[in-house]
Amino acid sequence: MTDAPADAPDTATTDPDAIAERIDHDETIELLQELVRIRSPYFEEEAITEFVYDWLDERELDPEYHAVSEPDITGFEGNNVLARLTGTDPDAPTLLLNAHMDTVELVEAWEEDPLSGRIEDGKLYGQGACDMKGGLAGIMVAFDALAAAGIDLAGDVLFTAVVDEEGPYGLGANQLIRDSVTDDCDAAIVTEPGPILAQRDIENPALLLGARGRFLYDITVTGEAAHGSQPHKGTNAVVDAGRLADALTGIEVGSHEQLGDGSVCPLKIEGGGETLSVPEACRLLVDRHVVVGETEDVVRADAEAVVADLNLDSGVEIDFREAPAPDVRYGPYVTDADDPLVGALRAGVEAVTGDDPAIGYFSSVGDFNYFGHRAGLPTVIVGPDGANIHGAGEFVHTDEVVGVARIVAAGCVALLA
């Protein structure tokens, strides 16, 4: 990892406006196009990981590979990419910049090359363009601009490009926590697309100061097999699982002033299979988004109460999705609007746009939950907007990618200079 370059220009300044102006629009979008053209679904990030490492290395930013391993459930082996700008004061805050490198699997419904990086009417198209290669490009150029400016920042800036955010466990961010990489951090900026997944309609510039959490019920329903021509002699686990799935949607979910309401959504019923037999077992997966105060014990008790009220003939075992460790889950969090990080990003937004940012909260989960909940860091999402994320026709607004890069760079200066 590296200090700011020794040959930095004499024009070094701690003015947020000046650092934002160092970020070139066209170079940023060219980088984004290169990133989008690299196929990188989760668990298959080797090519983009190498690209990000080489891009930083070419700029003498001293990147490091950070090994990610999960042998028990997924068998995954991969690498995050880390780099650090070292500040002048060891007692000053360390700021984490984070983006993920992976995408969802390529969607078959695309009517053009899903990795084209085509630009039309200020929109760049491609799988992952908005979620979140736009944000990844943003922190890459912001980090480079901070280094090239030769600013004497008091605190450190830690760049982290991680794998497997779109996968089942967020293994890249989890490894940062597991290996104590986040232990010396004091705050985090994550450049996920913000407004499109906010709890209410907002537009950029926007700062998202928290997110709901998530549990995934993994429920086993056990009935009794019988011949399908005489269903009354058995107990149909599929039927009872269907009744249970419907009843769970009626749970009285929690509510939070900032995060809004929780939610329940059955995702999958899996059971049966014999040609002419009453199904004796069924598996039910149910999503439960939660707000602050809805703990694992509360979530489990809610489901148990529903089961008790139904009085099903089948047996029901309520559990949660298997995870690499008990703490690998997405807890809800809220960052105080008066936190210094929020103030610094407000200053960054004002320096770049002249506006005061909208304030919102994220409706779903991601690596930011690991930083905001598990690591206990004040965490803010500031990212470019677009549309069709996870779907065909995904795009990101190019001007917002550049704007986010400038806001992040200016915010770093406002917080750490």
From TrEMBL:
<comment type="similarity">
    <text>Belongs to the peptidase M20A family.</text>
</comment>
<dbReference type="Pfam" id="PF07687">
    <property type="entry name" value="M20_dimer"/>
</dbReference>
<protein>
    <submittedName>
        <fullName>Peptidase M20</fullName>
    </submittedName>
</protein>
<keyword id="KW-0479">Metal-binding</keyword>
<keyword id="KW-0378">Hydrolase</keyword>
<dbReference type="GO" id="GO:0016787">
    <property type="term" value="F:hydrolase activity"/>
</dbReference>
<dbReference type="Pfam" id="PF01546">
    <property type="entry name" value="Peptidase_M20"/>
</dbReference>
<dbReference type="InterPro" id="IPR001261">
    <property type="entry name" value="ArgE/DapE_CS"/>
</dbReference>
<feature type="domain" description="Peptidase M20 dimerisation">
    <location>
        <begin position="210"/>
        <end position="311"/>
    </location>
</feature>
<dbReference type="GO" id="GO:0046872">
    <property type="term" value="F:metal ion binding"/>
</dbReference>
<dbReference type="InterPro" id="IPR011650">
    <property type="entry name" value="Peptidase_M20_dimer"/>
</dbReference>
<dbReference type="InterPro" id="IPR002933">
    <property type="entry name" value="Peptidase_M20"/>
</dbReference>
<dbReference type="InterPro" id="IPR036264">
    <property type="entry name" value="Bact_exopeptidase_dim_dom"/>
</dbReference>
<keyword id="KW-0862">Zinc</keyword>
<dbReference type="InterPro" id="IPR050072">
    <property type="entry name" value="Peptidase_M20A"/>
</dbReference>
